[in-house]
Structures are given as structure tokens and as C-alpha cells.
Amino acid sequence: MYLKNLELVGFKSFPEKSQFLFNKGITSIVGPNGCGKSNLLDALRWVLGEQRTSLLRGTKMEEVIFAGTRTLKPLGMAEVSLNIDNKDGSLPSQYGELTVSRRLYRSGESEYLINKVPCRLKDITDLFADSGVGAHAYAIIQQEMVDAILSDKNEERRFLFEEAA
Amino acid sequence: MYLKNLELVGFKSFPEKSQFLFNKGITSIVGPNGCGKSNLLDALRWVLGEQRTSLLRGTKMEEVIFAGTRTLKPLGMAEVSLNIDNKDGSLPSQYGELTVSRRLYRSGESEYLINKVPCRLKDITDLFADSGVGAHAYAIIQQEMVDAILSDKNEERRFLFEEAA
Amino acid sequence: AKAMFLETINKARDNFKQMYQELFTGGEADIILEDESDPLESRIEIVSRPRGKKPLTITQLSGGERALTAISLLFALYMVKPSPFCFLDEIDAPLDDVNVGRFLKIVRTFARQTQFVIITHNKITMEAADTLYGVTMEEPGVSKVVAVRFKKEAETDDTILDLHY
Amino acid sequence: AKAMFLETINKARDNFKQMYQELFTGGEADIILEDESDPLESRIEIVSRPRGKKPLTITQLSGGERALTAISLLFALYMVKPSPFCFLDEIDAPLDDVNVGRFLKIVRTFARQTQFVIITHNKITMEAADTLYGVTMEEPGVSKVVAVRFKKEAETDDTILDLHY
Ligand SMILES: Nc1ncnc2c1ncn2[C@@H]1O[C@H](COP(=O)(O)OP(=O)(O)OP(=O)(O)O)[C@@H](O)[C@H]1O
Ligand SMILES: Nc1ncnc2c1ncn2[C@@H]1O[C@H](COP(=O)(O)OP(=O)(O)OP(=O)(O)O)[C@@H](O)[C@H]1O
Ligand SMILES: [Mg+2]
Ligand SMILES: [Mg+2]
After folding, report:
1. From the CB of B145, is ligand 2 less than 6 Å away?
2. Residue A80 — very low, low, confident or very high, per pLDDT cuts 50/70/90?
3. Ligand 4: distance of its center to the CA of B45 in Å?
4. In this prediction, what percent of chain A has a pLDDT beyond 70?
5. A90-116, pLDDT tens digit by residue?
6. What are the tens digits of pLDDT across the range B21-72?
7. Which residues of chain D have a CB within 8 Å of the CB of A32?
8. Residue C48 forms beta bridges with which residues?
9. Is pLDDT above 50 for D153?
10. Under a CB-based contact definition with an 8 Å cutoff, are residues D82 and D114 in contact?
11. Which of A35, C4, C57, D18 lies 20 to 30 Å from D46 when distance is taken between CA atoms?
């Protein structure tokens, strides 16, 4: 499989509909401090089913919804969609092209969709569970993980090994 | 007061006698990963009386003594000396020029000296206690401190404020 | 499960030693199960000895050496079970230029089968990317994704600097 | 002691707001005692709101914004009780080029009365220094201090690169 693009609207610092196209090879994301680069990574984690708010730098899941600025009002919903090319069939789905979407409303209601068909969160995490692409795998690496993997506490390290097994 | 130079022998990755001259203004220390830059900072902390091995990246104080390499044998002692110009009298000492030295032997024995006269560790820490230059003050800042100062745990932050009071 | 985990550890160990050699150009590395008879619960110990040195513990290594050790380990696990994509957030920050170069050399080989997305402030990493995206915040608090360069055409550092205002 | 601590907090607060403006060119900052009536035990809360944004908590800020907030606070405390020297170990690592520049501008003003020693891998910081020292490890595991440049004469980036082998 390979990723085609990521679409965000109302997610963290992306109030307006934004697209991020994935290419083959190495893509680098640059920009000033605080401009939203790590937020893109959070969006990817989130649409893959991440439930641990700590990994999204929050305490409540509601915090991923655009909270407004001095001049803009907060929004009522966050939505992220991930388009995937699955022609090699590496994801357990009959579809050659997949769009996984996740929505969260301020009311706390969530919606999950695969190719526009509503589903459960579990259906999304199951889809990625074995491909090494879960919201939990070593496919997403941040600075804190680098320290955690070497720390005296064994859990993070053990968890990564279990993911690779 | 201002610092004149730092002398190390047998301290961490500095088996041979090494000098670091302090200048006015901004001095930058550069070099490849693992070449010994942070070890210089550790040496400064240590000669100012630091007793917390965790701040020296160790568990036992003995770990600051040169442990040898594949080709060199370990040494039996670490010694660091700090030469200070005190002509403005900002340090509570009659001397216009001060040399503070600290030695540690593998046996566990320690020696402390001010201007070559043996003294106690307390005499060294007392000397710096009020000048904002203690081994504890915000005069020495590392990456971990930057996280600690903002963390939910209040202690590091409170400690820094008390140091400034 | 026990046999599978042991097999993962063994494969990871071989990969770790290989990755370590490529990143450290020497030295020794190992993954040790504290309790071989109980792989599913045992502590996993990481050994990292850069060339010529004999550090006693991982905590004594420099910031860059620790980062490079963790990167070797993460790549080792990735080799056991490659993920279709890999998203790295500023993990090159503690590395000197030579080590960034070695890190990117490995990323380039993996990038033939894996989409790499690297968030970075490092000019060398930006240069190595096939595709460069910028994230900007012209309107305070509102992020926008901007394509800066596709497949290494035309763009210069000035374009990147324009993202800062 | 209580009055003294309150006075320190108040001075630090004013300095923090000033430092924050210089580093963030806008936005709001504050130091809040959770329990005003019990300053010696109360939690100290830090408020950091970059221009135009309204982040709910410090954890939502970006890596660079957090580093810059911590630096503003450390400089604020330093201004209450300046130390004769200040030793910084790679605290510029998470900052983008523009923020490194702003950080160095403040360091330069303080450097008239304080000796600053900055360990760094950042080219801009190296350029800004009056004196440049290199630490090398030609013999594995053995550090050597090398003077690279004194008072901004003659040296070029090539000299710095020569420290890497
Ligand atoms: N729910 C939200 N609504 C609006 N803005 C948000 C929300 N959550 C986070 N932000 C903003 O996003 C910004 C952080 O963005 P991000 O972490 O992506 O920066 P970055 O580009 O990674 O920067 P750095 O280079 O410093 O790591 C913060 O300023 C924060 O206020
Ligand atoms: N007691 C000791 N004897 C010998 N070598 C030691 C001792 N303690 C630490 N070292 C070595 O010093 C090295 C670390 O040096 P240091 O932390 O100063 O590097 P650095 O220049 O700060 O690098 P970086 O840029 O990666 O932060 C390690 O390789 C470690 O093995
Ligand atoms: Mg970031
Ligand atoms: Mg270091």
C-alpha cells in the first residue's frame, strides 16, 4: 500500500480544508516554529485510530478540534481523511483504493468511515493492525520516543519489539 | 567575578591534562557527537560542588573518573580546577584570584582545595552560594531543564524561583 | 508466541548490529534478554559501545550517541517488519552534520520501498528530500500547506527562508 | 521569606513579559501563583500565548514554542539575579533560524556583563560567538580542546567542518 493524500479540516491549527499529498521516496516538511508541522503528524495518527490523547499532546480528545484564534471562532468539528492506494492488496480489504475518515464533534460524538461507509473505530484499527501501520507502530517516530526507547523503564522498548513480532 | 580557565585531568573523556580558557562575551563550543562538549559542562558543575550524580549522567560519583578506552587503561583519579578572577570582590573571599579544585580517587576519597589549601566541600559551595553561581542555579542550562521547567510537576520550576530569590 | 518473540529479538539483534555499524562506523551493539528463559516478560537490555570507547551504561553516552543508538534500534525493528510509510518528527535535531548524512543514507535505501516523511529544521535533510513541503502561518494560528519543491527541481534555500517571516 | 519570594515572583513576572515580547514579538505571557495567600507552597503556573493564538495549555504548544517559553522564563529569572556566567548546552536545537537569531540578540545584550558559553551544532550560533572552541576526539575516547577562533578573526566554516572526521 502507499499513502496518497491527507485531508484536514477543523483539526488543530488547520481550520480551513487543507491537503497534504504524499509522494514516493523522501518528503521533507519544513516551516517556522509553531506553524503546524507536528499537527500534521497528529492528524495522521488520529485518522489511523489513535486514542491516547497524550500522544496528541492533549488531555481531552476535544482538544484536536480547531479552538479558534484571537480573530476566528472555534469550530464545531474536526475531520481528517486519508486516501490510500491498496492495489497491492497489503491491507485486508477488497478495495484497491481506500479512504479512511474520522470526525469528532464538540458534543463528543465521533464518526468513522471507510470509503464513505460508516463503520466503527475498531474497523479502522483492524484494517491497519497487521501492516505495521497501526497508530501504535514504530512507523511514527518523535523525539520523545527516542528517549523512551533507551530509558530504564522497559515498557516502551518491549512494546516496540512486540509490535515488530 | 569572572571565570578565567577550567583545567581537567582524568575527568570523563579527558584523561590528559586539558585547559579551557574562558573569554569575555559569547564563547561557542562545537564538535562532533560524543566528542566531550557536555563533559566540559559536567566538569564545571562538578568543581562547583555538584553532588547529584543524576545531573552528571551517572549513578555513582566514581563514574566521572576516566574509565579507559579500548587501548587506554582507566585512571585512578579525576581532578578539575577552576580559576576565577575575583578582583571585584563579588565572591565572599579575601583573594583577588581564586583557584577551586576538586579531586576524586577510585577509593572514594575526595579532596577539595581553595588556592591549594585543603578545605571541605561546604567551603566551596558556600563560596558560590549567594552569587547565583551555585551548582544549583539557572546558570547552567541543558535541554532536559527546558522541559522540566514547563512540566506539570511544579518542583523544578519552584526551585528555580527560590534560587533567584 | 514465545518462539515468535524470540525469533523477532534475534532478527532485530542482527539488524541492530548492522544498522549500528552503518551509523557509528564501528563499535559494538547488542540486544540482550536479561532472562533468556522468560522472553515475554524479561527486561530487554540495549548495549551501545561506540568505536574505541567503553561506556559503562547508555546514560553515559552523549545526546547524539543516544539518539543515533535509538535510531539504529528503530531501523532494526523496521527491517524486521517494514512499514509502508515512516513519519519522523525532528529526530535529526541532536545529530552533527556527518551523522545526519549517515542517517539520510540509510533513509534513502529504505525509501525505495517506504514513503518517508521527515519534519525537520536541518538544511542537509531538506536538501536530501525528493519532495519539499512548507507549512506556513501567514494568518496567526491558521496553518497552510504549501508545496515548495517537487522532485528536486528549481528551488533554492531562499524559497525555504521565505517561509519564515 | 514570604515577602521576599513574592517580590521575586513579581520581578520575574515583569521580566518574563518583557523577554517573551522580544522572543515571540507579540502574544501574552504571565506567571500566576495558584494560591496567592501561600506563595511558599503554591503551584506556579506559566501562561504562554503566542501572538494571535489562544492555546489552552502549555502542552499544546509546539516544540519550538515550548523551548522559547522556557528560555524566556530562564532569562527572566537571570535578570532578577544575574549570574556571572551562563553555560547553555544545545538549547537552540528545537528553534528555527529566525528564533535562533532572536535568542542570540538577547544573549548578546546580557553578554556585556555575563560570560556566555554555548554548546551548539547550529551554524548561526557559531557565527554569533566572539570565541569559538572545538572539542575533538582524534584518538577514540580521548577528548581534546582546540581553539578555533578568537574574537571573530579569520576562521571559516571549513575549519569547523575539519573538526568532523
Ligand atoms: N485545537 C487547536 N486549535 C487551534 N490551534 C491549535 C490547536 N491545537 C494546537 N494548536 C496550535 O498549533 C500550534 C503547534 O503546532 P505544531 O506543534 O504543529 O508546530 P510545529 O510546526 O511542529 O513547530 P515546531 O517546529 O516548533 O515543532 C500551537 O501554537 C498551538 O497553539
Ligand atoms: N568516565 C568516563 N571515562 C571515559 N569516557 C567517558 C566517561 N564518561 C563519559 N565518557 C564518554 O564521553 C562521551 C560523551 O561525551 P559528551 O556527552 O561530552 O559528548 P558531546 O560532545 O556533548 O556530544 P553530543 O553533541 O552528542 O551531545 C561518551 O562517549 C562517553 O563514553
Ligand atoms: Mg513540532
Ligand atoms: Mg552533549
Report:
1. no
2. very high
3. 14
4. 95
5. 889 999 999 999 999 999 999 999 999
6. 999 999 999 999 999 999 999 999 999 999 999 999 999 999 999 999 999 9
7. 64, 96, 98-99
8. C29
9. no
10. yes
11. A35
Q: What is the pLDDT of residue D105?
A: 98
Q: Is the Cβ–Cβ distance between D23 and D71 less than 8 Å?
A: yes
Decide: D11 and D80 in contact? Cβ < 8 Å. Answer: yes
**How many Cα neighbours within 13 Å face the side chain of D69?**
30
- To the nearest whole percent, how much of chain C has pLDDT over 70? 90
pLDDT score of B137? 63
D139 to chain C: nearest residue by CA? C52
Strand order in the sheet with D85-89: B140-142, D85-89, D115-119, B26-30, D131-136, D144-149
Range C104-121 average pLDDT: 96
Instruction: Give the pLDDT confidence of B3-24 residue by residue, as tens digits.
Output: 999 999 999 999 999 999 999 9
Q: Do D119 and B41 touch (CB under 8 A)?
A: yes
Best of D23, D28, D96 to disrupt the A interface (most A CBs within 10 Å) is D96
- C-alpha–C-alpha distance, residues A147 and B22, integer Å: 32
The residues, ordered by sequence, that sit 6+ positions from A34 with a Cβ below 8 Å of its Cβ are C137, D50, D53, D61, D62, D64, D65
Say how many CA atoms lie within 13 Å of A158 toward its Cβ: 12
Residue A131 is given by DSSP the state: T
Give the separation between CA B154 and CA B136, rounded to whole angstroms: 17
Question: With contacts defined as CB-CB under 8 Å, which chain C residues touch D97?
Answer: 121, 161, 164
Mean pLDDT along residues C58-72: 94
Residue owning grid cell 496528541: A56
By CB atoms closer than 10 A (0-12, 13-18, 19+), residue C151 is exposed
Report pLDDT for B144.
Answer: 84
Q: Which of A141, A157, A160, A162 to mutate to probe the C interface, most C CBs <10 Å?
A: A141
User: Could you tell me whether strands D144-149 and D131-136 are parallel, antiparallel, or unpaired per DSSP bridges?
Assistant: antiparallel
Question: Is C156 a residue whose pLDDT tops 50?
Answer: no
Contact B136, B119 (CB under 8 A): no
Q: DSSP of C25-44, one letter per residue?
A: SS-EEEEEES-TT-TTTS-E
Contacts of C92 (CB under 8 A, 6+ apart): C100, C103, C118, C120, C122, C125
Kindly list the residues of chain B whose beta carbon comes within 8 Å of any beta carbon in chain C. 31-35, 37-38, 57-59, 63, 67-71, 143
Q: Which three cell numbers stand for residue D52?
A: 494571535
Longest CA span, chain C:
59
How many CB atoms are located within 10 Å of the residue B146 CB?
A: 23
Question: Residue A87 gets which letter from DSSP?
Answer: T
Contact D56 A63 (CB under 8 A): yes
Confidence band for A132, pLDDT divided at 50, 70 and 90: low
Q: Which residues contact D67 (CB under 8 A, 6 or more apart)?
A: A33, B146, D91, D93, D94, D95
Ligand nearest to C-alpha B29: 2
Asked if C83 contacts A138 with a C-beta cutoff of 8 angstroms, the reply is: yes
Per-residue confidence at D62, pLDDT binned at 50, 70, 90?
A: very high
Q: Is B72 in the pocket of ligand 2 (CB under 6 A)?
A: no
C-alpha distances in Å from residue A45, one per residue of A54, A60, C50: 12, 15, 34
Cβ-contact D106, D125 below 8 angstroms: no
